[in-house]
Amino acid sequence: MTKVAYITTGKIGIHRFTYNELIELDKKGINFTLCLTQLNKGSWMPDKNWHVITASKSQALIQLFKLLIAKTKLIFKLIQVAKKQQVLPYLLMALSFYRKLSSKDITSIHCQMGDKKLYTGYFLKILLNRPLTVTVHAHELYQRKIYDDAQSIRKLYTFCDKVFTISEFNANILKEQFNIEPQKIEITRLFPEIDDQNKVKDKTKILIVANWAEKKGYDILLQAIKQIKREDFVLWIVGGSYFSENSLDVEQKVKEYKIENKVALLGRQGGVNLDIIFYACDIFCLPSYTEYYEDGNPAEREGIPVSLMEAMAWGKPVISTKHAGIPELVEDILVKEKNVEQLKNAIEYLIEHPEKWDEMGKKNKEIIQEKYTKENVNILADTIKQW
């Protein structure tokens, strides 16, 4: 069985093109262990069914001491190379990966990115005695350190069993400037993946824009989404943690309810990005509710949420609750607070009746234009002028 150690970075999650490539390799039955030099949160994260190793300094040091006993001469030789090339961190990464890869019958090593990170693959090839391939992108070819130490990079590429690159232009640079043998170079073009999670096209797009606070009704909304037994809609969530005791981990709730296929977490947005999202959505939903102290007094309530005003100003139909000042703004559709069934029915009604969207949206826009305009600032301005 083919088992590749696939080395890349997760500095801001995985690069989208890398994620797409891994998805396709998985579909083709390529068994890979994803070796990440680091992993931070980003837009594209490893799938939960992938085997992932993240570099660890402590694990590397443990492996270093073990190999110093078992393979003393080899390890001292690798340390000398690492010191000379000033790439000790990449040797440590290789040792960190080696600790788990050595028991996995790896058949080859692939390094995604052809700069000095390739030394991680270089050291692993020596330790595992397996073929090494690399994908060289344009970014690596123009780094200052590549110009300043071209000879070292040339040796690295030569050490690889195959050098992939993404264009004929890059391939010519590898041949002419790095003297890589043409038969060793293979062009593998990147590819776009449009709506790969099926959360944009041919869907009714329901939007909520709010901090992840309990009073915004996220949990009620997600329960309603879970109960809707249809696949022709998606919930877009714009917002993030409220960083308070009243904050809700919306991402965890989505996983708990197993509705990842129906929800797109868009993070915090603002400015023109948020305008684009409002424009692109079909329905806006904000099921706010009152939170209470143990003695029964209200602990949290909305005033009149600005995100509702914004959605209505964009001419969108909205769904909200009979809560605090919201009925002063929204004439329809309003449901009872914390009522999952009513909310579910309201969402289903609008999904099933797209012919109602335009009429409701126009009415909502008129409400904003008549009552919720910038002229309202005059009340404050006129008062200030009196003093």
Mean pLDDT, rounded to whole units? 93
What's the architecture of the largest domain in CATH terms? 3-Layer(aba) Sandwich
- Quick one: how many beta strands? 15
Structural class: alpha/beta
Largest sheet: 7 strands, parallel
**What is the general shape?**
elongated
CATH superfamily of the largest domain: Glycogen Phosphorylase B
Which key terms come to mind for this protein?
387 residues, alpha/beta, Rossmann fold, 2 domains, 7-stranded parallel β-sheet, 6-stranded parallel β-sheet, 15 strands, elongated
How would you portray this structure in words?
The longest helix has 15 residues. This protein starts with a strand and ends with a helix. It is of the alpha/beta class and 387 residues long. Helix 2 packs across helix 4, helix 3 packs antiparallel against helix 4 and helix 10 crosses helix 15. The mean pLDDT is 93. The chain is elongated, with a radius of gyration of 28 Å. The strands form three sheets. Strands 3-2-1-4-5-6-7 form a seven-stranded parallel β-sheet, with helices on both faces. Helix 11 links the parallel strand 9 and strand 10. It folds into two domains: 185 residues, Rossmann fold, CATH 3.40.50; 173 residues, Rossmann fold (3-Layer(aba) Sandwich).
